[in-house]
Amino acid sequence: MIASLPMYDWAEIKPVTDRLWAGIRDRLRAAGTEAPEELTRGIDMWDSWHDPDLLVSQTCGFPYRTKLHGKVTLVGTPDFALPDAPPGYYYSVLVTRTDTPGDWTDFLDRPLAINGYDSQSGWAAPMNHAASIGRSFTNIMPTGAHVESARAVAEGRADIAAIDAVTWRLVQAFRPEIADRLRVATHTEPTPGLPLITAKNRDPGPIATAVRAAIAAIRSSDRAPLGLAGLIDIPAAAYLSVPTPKR
User: Fold this and answer.
1) SS3 of 214, please?
2) Which fold, 2-81+192-240?
3) Are strands 160-164 and 112-114 parallel, antiparallel or unpaired?
4) Spatial distance between the Cα atoms of 128 and 177, rounded to a whole number of angstroms
5) Which has the closest alpha carbon to 61: 245, 240, 212, 246?
6) Which of 137, 194, 181 is closest to 162 using CA atoms?
7) What is the maximum span of the chain, computed from C-alpha positions, in angstroms?
8) Can you tell me the distance from the alpha carbon of 226 to that of 64, in angstroms, rounded to the nearest whole number?
9) CATH 3.40.190.10 domain range(s) in the chain
């Protein structure tokens, strides 16, 4: 059985994430649902998302609407209480160097660092943001991870990057040597956040109930590092309605 929370599982908050999982696990077991003792780490995310033995994991809105819809079941969307976003929604911050002036539109033809082409926050969000004014980012530089996109801008290998706002919080908290060299030029329109999913034929109700209760019971010292405020029910249609840019 697979349980993972891979999207914000930074080493610096691993013990906090493990305590959150323990709260979810114990509530599932108390309700009669089998749950693994520990989170599964080190497994390919795509393999885990397609595994019929998946109990719970977290994916991104882009993979969900393009490849996973109809193959997995939504459990709910964690709410990170981001400013300027509805509960359960998130956005990307477009960051540039602090010593580089200009509006975000001044960077449309300059190197944009993205974590990957399968990312809502890293690629689809900035492309849709540019499309809203009839423009496009024309110079794309994949880095493999949001933090590496931020690092690429800070070190001058790229001029602008699209960073998931929750990850940006982590960069600010745990990579100040990067964050202090960057400024937020703008942020994209909010879209549904990174959903929790389970296997297609599994009942999501007990999982959602356990997650919701575990989040509510997070001890105060763990709440700030996780940034979690609750679990929101966002319908699949809201994910599917987000435009998918063309490569």
Assistant:
1) helix
2) D-Maltodextrin-Binding Protein; domain 2 (3.40.190)
3) parallel
4) 30
5) 240
6) 137
7) 57
8) 23
9) 92-189
Token code pair at residue 194: 């990174």
**Integer CA distances (angstroms), 208 to 51, 53, 69, 124, 148, in order:** 19, 17, 18, 28, 32
- The CATH number fitting domain 92-189, selected from 3.90.230.10, 1.10.10.970, 3.30.420.10, 3.40.190.10: 3.40.190.10
Write the pLDDT tens digit of every residue in 96-129.
999 999 999 999 999 999 999 999 999 999 999 9
Amino acid at 185: A
**189, 169, 188: which is closest to 179 by C-alpha?**
169
Distance of CA 163 to the CA centre of its chain: 10
Q: Are 182 and 99 in contact (CB under 8 A)?
A: no
Q: Which phi and psi (to 5°) does residue 244 adopt? A: -105, 115
Is 122:150 a contact under the CB 8 Å cutoff?
no
For the beta carbon of residue 11, count every other beta carbon within 10 angstroms.
8
Q: Are 75 and 87 in contact (CB under 8 A)?
A: no
Question: Rounded distance, CA 25 to CA 9, Å?
Answer: 17
34-66: per-residue pLDDT in tens? 999 999 999 999 999 999 999 999 999 999 999
Instruction: Please state, in angstroms and rounded to a whole number, the distance separating the CA atoms of residues 141 and 157.
Output: 9
